[in-house]
Amino acid sequence: MPSARALNRYTGAVIPPPRSATANDEIDENDEIDWYPFLARPRLASPTATFLTSLLDACILVTGAGGSIGSALSLRLASLRPRKLILLDASEQALFRLESCLAGLPSLPGIPGMSANPITILGSVSDSALLREVFAQHAPNLVFHAAAYKHVALLESHPLAAIQNNALGTQSLIECACNHSQARMILLSTDKAVAPISILGATKRIAELLTLANGGTVLRLCNVLGTEGSVVETFLRQIAAGGPVTIAHPDAERYFITCTEAVDLLLTCAVEARPGALFVPAVQRPHRVQALAEFLIDHDSNAASLPIKYSGLRTGDKLSEDLWSANEQPGTANPQGLVELRYPQMPLPDCVEKIAHLHSAANNRDLPRALEILQQLVPDYTPSTTVLALARQNQTQQVCLSDPS
Known about the structure:
With 405 residues, the protein is α/β, with parallel strands linked by helices. The chain has a domain at 4-31 and 39-224 and 255-285: NAD(P)-binding Rossmann-like Domain (Rossmann fold), CATH 3.40.50. Helix content is 42%, strand content 14%. The chain contains 14 helices and 15 strands. It has helices spanning 4-9, 36-39, 68-80, 92-104, 128-138, 152-156, 159-181, 199-213, 231-240, 259-272, 289-299, 348-363, 367-377, 385-402; strands at residues 59-63, 84-89, 119-122, 142-145, 184-190, 217-221, 223-225, 245-247, 253-254, 256-258, 278-281, 287-288, 308-310, 329-330, 338-342. It has a 9-stranded mixed β-sheet with strand order 3-2-1-4-5-6-11-15-14, with helices on both faces. A two-stranded parallel sheet has the order 7-10. The longest helix is centred in the middle third of the chain and has 23 residues, at 159-181. The termini are far apart.
């Protein structure tokens, strides 16, 4: 059985576990960190077992199943025991850890043994042949698409990788869903897709456009507290080391939800959402990132006077994020904690044509052409100086390769 710390990585906690754990545990109410004094709001509504009954007969595919949100979702789905559960991830280590946690589920109090073990698959959404094989063999009728490269500053230095994985990988997944099993797709997106200034945001916005144009559902999340690689993990590591705690800017702010809330919203979208719906969490206001650091410092009795220093915004980062763009209109929050956005839809033929050109540019390692198409698809995308410099360098290399003399 995996350790409590390993299980917590997959249920949303960041340091030691609750005293008792069940399939419907409120992991954000663990002994160590209660996030709601910081969030200063009630917990978003959680779907009941009765509400989720329709998922029991589903054949479900989760991509990015080994990531922080993907693994929490996978464990929740496994506890529901749907007809079939297929878990896909490109990281060998992440998939191994998830398998270990799944093996430990039956021994947790309140969770009966699963009727059938989930099927784990090591592979990428960028592998079209693998996706065709998965859909031909298992015919999933519900897909949670959580696979994505997500580190903003890192991806600014690797824009073609972001395009291949986040945008073109989504297109490959949609093609398989349409051609093999007519599966419904729920895309896990990010507020960085709104008026993006990062390649992450631009490629996730393309993933949104593709999903919506093909009748899927998009859940555009804000920052999720305590996920692997998140600012919370960084702050806790710095606090444990005795500081200083590093923040980009004193006025930097973000919207936040917990990992449990993110999973609840994904499950709600799977049950209730109509085709082509775009949702954001019903959170009222952002919080300063410095306030989060101070909350975590105050939470540690040994860290009361740790210094805070400012490092400056990284390439691709904004001072603040928005949940919707100027051409999107929010409706009223529903009881499940979701706000549906009205949006202008890109016609599917236009989307397909531009994606074909993007695919060609990415395969040819032609970054200038890929950026040109990205900005056609996402007109409010502003490439960073890092990406533009890489495009100029790439253009020079392309010229040299075409004229070796």
